[in-house]
Amino acid sequence: MSVTPRVLVAFTVALAGGVLAPGARADVTKDQCIDANASAQRLRLAGKLGAAHRALLTCADSACPGMVRDDCSRRLDELDRAQPTIILDVKDPVGNDLTDVRVNVDGTPLTDRLDGVARRVDPGVHVFTFEVGGQPVATRKLVIQESEKGRRETIVIAPATVAPSPDQHREGGVQGRRLLGLGVGGVGVAGVVVGSIFGGLADAAWHDQKSACGSPASCTNAGHAAALSDHTSLTTDGAVSTTAFIAGGALLAAGIVLFLTAPPRAATAGRLTIVPAVGPGQASIAVTARF
């Protein structure tokens, strides 16, 4: 029987597949299986369930001895029940879901993309960091309980806070100084108005005193009593008027100085207009500000 080259090639490929296939799966040696089983037990006791899971997958391979493989498979089932899982839900400030998020646990990468799948984590206290392009890194410290399944954590990535510029600080200071000047000046105007009112009352009391007892010859007993009352009112109202005028004038002057000495704004400078009004027995000042 003649063997063609095509048949020979096919036979060689089939033989290689039959011989190499078991060898391709039998990368794990007996010693490696035993070592992986022992390592998984140590890692489990240390609370490193993720690393223990990977070790048990090694010794649960079909290439391992049956006794070791069965023991690792049993331990793997127990570990799966004890391994906590967490679902991370990252949102922007308006509530939109974010998926392109780099998540680290204690500095070790966990995932680069969120898809709603529960992630295996070790029990214990861990620091999670969440990185989204162009935004500040968010940090969350979590205590993960053993056997806790499907724990959901929502993290909001806040935008970076922009610090006010020097111009904004300057503008705020200018505005505050102008407002202070207006407040102080307003109190001064009120003092001048009160002084004007009591000045008018004092003037009226002076005229009433003259009418009641203009001279010693024409001053009756009744007129003398009325004159004394008017004189008391004149003294009191005059003192109040003088005090109010002095205090109001000082505060008004201070307010004007504060307002006018504030640095001008970038666009326009403020303007203060003062219009005095003086009449018989009264005085007033109108203050108009624009800024």
Descriptive report:
The chain is α+β, with helices and mostly antiparallel strands and 291 residues long. The protein has 3 domains: 27-82; 85-156, Carboxypeptidase-like, regulatory domain (Immunoglobulin-like), CATH 2.60.40; 170-290. Helix content is 53%, strand content 19%. It has 6 helices and 9 strands; from the N terminus they run ααααβββββββααββ. It has helices at 5-25, 30-45, 49-59, 66-82, 166-212, 221-261; strands spanning 85-91, 102-105, 108-111, 119-120, 124-131, 138-144, 151-156, 271-279, 282-290. A 4-stranded antiparallel beta sheet has the order 3-2-5-6, with no helix packed on it. It has a 3-stranded mixed beta sheet with strand order 4-1-7, with no helix packed on it. Helix 5 (166-212) runs antiparallel to helix 6 (221-261). The longest helix has 47 residues, at 166-212. The protein is rod-shaped. It starts with a helix and ends with a strand.
Question: Shape, please?
Answer: rod-shaped
- For the terminal residues, how far apart are their CA atoms? 112 Å
Share of helix, binned? 40-55%
How many alpha or pi helices? 6
How would you spell out the order of helices and strands?
Answer: HHHHEEEEEEEHHEE
Topology, number of strands: 9
Mean pLDDT: 77
Question: Regions with pLDDT < 50 over 5+ consecutive residues?
Answer: 1-25
Number of domains: 3
Instruction: Characterize the main sheet.
Output: 4 strands, antiparallel
Helix/sheet category: alpha+beta
Order of neighbouring strands in the sheet with most strands: 3-2-5-6
This entry's quaternary arrangement is single chain
Beta strand %: 15-25%
Radius of gyration: 47 Å
